[in-house]
Amino acid sequence: VRHFRELSYAGAILRDTWVLTDVGITPSSAICCLLKREPVVRVFSAVTGETLSVSGTVFLLSTSVARLMTLVSQQCGLPVSSFRLSSPTGLQLYDCNRLHDYAIDLGMAFLVQ
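RE: above sequence
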């Protein structure tokens, strides 16, 4: 799980690129700082030797293995058909199943082979 801060004003989330006076925030205005959590799955690529962090609300335990493989493919540039995902214990993950079928928890690291 990745923790991050988010600033909001009058119910709107403030972006990093915004200038406060440009969006109507005046001196002595109250800005709310929220600490949020975002699910993260880590994938180690044996091909490149890199560990990728795939994050977002897509990673609920009901996410399919096929969806995870698509996201990994987009991040590392490998075609989906050229690799397989394995659990930390070495168990191969099959496309038709969901992460919860393998007793996967958020924060676990997968292996790209």
